[in-house]
Amino acid sequence: xxxxxxKSIKASILKSFHDFKENEVILCRKxxxxxxxxxxxxxxxxxxxxxxxxNQRAYGVWVSEIMLQQTQVATVIDYYNKWMKKWPTLxxxxxxxxxxxxxxxxxxxxxSRGRRLHEAAKKVVGENGGIMPESADHLLKELPGVGRYxxxxxxxxxxxxxxxxxxxxxxxxxxxxxxxxxxSADPQIIEAFWELANKLVDPDxxxxxxxxxxxxxxTVCTPKSPSCATCPLQSLCYAYSQTQKNDTKLTNKFxxxxxxxxxxxxxxxxDDCRFCIPASDSWDSNLGVTNxxxxxxxxxxxxxxxxxxxxxxxxxxxxxxxxVQRPENGLLAGLWEFxxxxxxxxxxxxxxxxxxxxxxINVPCDSNRDHIGxxxxxxxxxxxxxxxxxxxxxxxxxxxxxxxxxxxxxTAQQLQSAAISTAMKKVFKVYENYENGKQVPIKKRGSKCKxxxxxxxxxxxxxxxxxxxxxxxx
Length: 474
Ligand code: SF4
Ligand SMILES: [Zn+2]
Hints:
This protein is of the alpha+beta class.
């Protein structure tokens, strides 16, 4: 048997205890499809099932699959609907600007996904007349941003190719069904999951089968509290059988029950089996089926602190704020942000001041800036703390500088729909709260601050004096 990339898989993997037998494959397809047709959630990208044009169907599946990577279904629904309304076809998307794509993607995170989807749409329209490649192999080779999973999802759902697929939900379900307790991030183990998924997929209904397997993982065989009692695959599940046995110390011994032809004791007898829970890692009877899958311990996210200046310029009609575009590569590529700079060891904001000087902006001294506070945002691998300060400019730097360095001035309202990250929206919210007096300003002592304080004290004194002065008779 071959995988999606045409690589051969060692036969020994397929013949092992952790494999499915033919009768189990047939039972699994039947039970899962029946369950899926009764229980599938009503999701906007599934409404396209009746669309005759497979190419159009593929576009919808593609957009939804890219959005669903690392984002919850509930969040994606709204973004998907907005996206399809704005760019209902590949052709429409190919004519959009990256700025528009970033704007619509704003708040969804992992912005490179939107950028690459846009790039790939332009490629399909420019090089292939808007016709999507139909096989998983071609989708994988030809479309930027389309990985092995997305290629298999588009090919099976839109073009009925009999290819299995593996995502986080599928790994969870398969690892429990077949008691695969090895590290699920290990490339060899991932390969085994692909092998199992390719074996299980229903050749007549590959799209529905794959969606069913993912749906089961998302709604029944969930990470922390799976509903084994309602699971259509319970009779095939080694993990479930294992929890039913009294002697939980026999971690690799199982009893197959109910819908299988006969009751048999089975166990993985392979020496040093690389799919079983490793001997060094004990079975936790409190976890039950959630002993599977086993994941490597996550690395702690890197701690970073970044200085952010919110720079306001008072205009005739409305205040405007300075935004700078991020580089075209890396984290949050091409998005707009308030001028920022990583705070290094010495925690000085000098780098940011130098950067702003390059934009023609002189940063006022420490005591003449408002110290708004700290805003924490967690990216997948970075625990980011933004140290936010604010000040006002009398005049904007000349427009030539703005054009060269990609600066723009936006009103608070424009900021809401601009291509800026969720983290920067949070920063602005904290700033607005501060401005609205919801938080007491942390002013440092300094000339301007003193002036403000003195003016306010004088005003308060006058009010007190007028209050205590005897009123003259009218
Ligand atoms: S029986 Fe439980 S653990 Fe097994 S596949 Fe179903 S929900 Fe998951
Ligand atoms: Zn084993």
